[in-house]
Amino acid sequence: MTAMDGNWSPMSWKQHVALQQVVYDDDDAVREAVQRLRMFPPLVTSWGIERLKVLMAEAAEGRRFFLQGGACAEMLSDCRPDIITNKLKILLQMSLVITHGLKKPVIRVGRLAGQYAKPRSCDTETIGDVTLPSYRGDLINRCEFTAQARRPDPHRMIDAYQHAALTLNFIRSLTETGFADLHHPEYWDLAFLKKDHVAQEVREKYEAMATELSEALRFMEALGDRSVEDLSRVDFYCSHEALNLLYESAQTRTVPRRAAYYDLTTHMPWIGDRTRDPNGAHVEFMRGISNPIGIKVGPSIKPSELRELLDILDPDSVPGRITLITRFGADRVEDCLPKLIDVVRSTEHKVVWVCDPMHGNTTQTSTGQKTRNFNEILRELDTCINVHKAKYGYLCGVHFELTGEHVTECIGGASGVSECDLDLQYTTKCDPRLNWEQALEMAFLIAERLGSTPLRNGTL
Ligand code: PEP
Ligand code: CO
Fold it and tell me: What residues flank ligand 1, with Cβ below 6 Å?
């Protein structure tokens, strides 16, 4: 690994320009927080990370499908049993639907247990004649619009770490014992499909998919197949944007008998679209760690810049080392994606191509509320699938901002959230998320589009 090249250390990023970093006003408190973080046991192990690397190499080859989802800005107050259970449940349900439709295993990765730091387009926020620092996620400051809440507090790194540990502890106990009811889609609350405004053919299509899935699972159970057991003891991985480099580097270390550094705050850190400058601190930090790495790729990237990033971050061309999470906006995919596919193909790098159809499709309502339209999200996904296919490749995975709750943040889908519903349950502190009905519907649509077997009733 490059980590061993002598120029890299967990702190070498300090010699580079770090965008989106906060300025804490108490150096002693920062030192103390970082020192405490260094002493804590890790949140994940190198074994888990190495296992995910094997799976990601298979995803790059199209042998597994990658599903990543969770909140835009996870909050410390999300560390509650119901919220964690619901989030895990929707991700597992989506993965079952996709596994069944695509006939290939799904790698499940939550945006959670650390998705607490947010890049912002503006350093400050002004309401009336008051200007305060922007909210940068619960790892940094608090969302309330007061000077005290918005002051970056280094101790929040410790709080965030501890909440991430509690979240992971609960997720591990759930995934070890299994959610039995997940095996029976008839127990899933699909009532939203029965609403009057849902077209009959759509309803029939989803019901047919759900029935087929139940039958397949029951058949496996009847056979006493081990794989049902496997379905209840699921592998689950975590990920977050590695934005606050003090937090990430404090838990970056070597482990016994492995000659490599790992960021042990998460299995899969990613670099945001705003911090992927090849000469910047985030890229410098990420090049030295052995985790599989995500890079968010928006319309502003140039093919030459992508090539440079890949050469820096994946010098040994390890299949699956890099996941490119593209997020162009439905209208920009055809313009942006083909040239990036071409440039990657002209190198030795074997990346995992993932579509994030959320971040390029954020709009504002007339009252200034941020939202996203289900159909536009689907359109970006469709266009991505088609572009990959036209280039003789394939989409390896998807990335969503979603929640297991009944929020009303994105418009559309069979559950019928309209613009005037947005105020009913709008709880995100950052970007709008699919609610669980919209997320499940999206999984059905992914299965439909990428699935290899047509449905029995021939509706597809
Ligand atoms: C995000 O994933 O919440 C985000 C900020 O994405 P991007 O870096 O793609 O803008
Ligand atoms: Co977001």
Answer: 72, 119, 272-274, 296, 298, 327, 359, 431
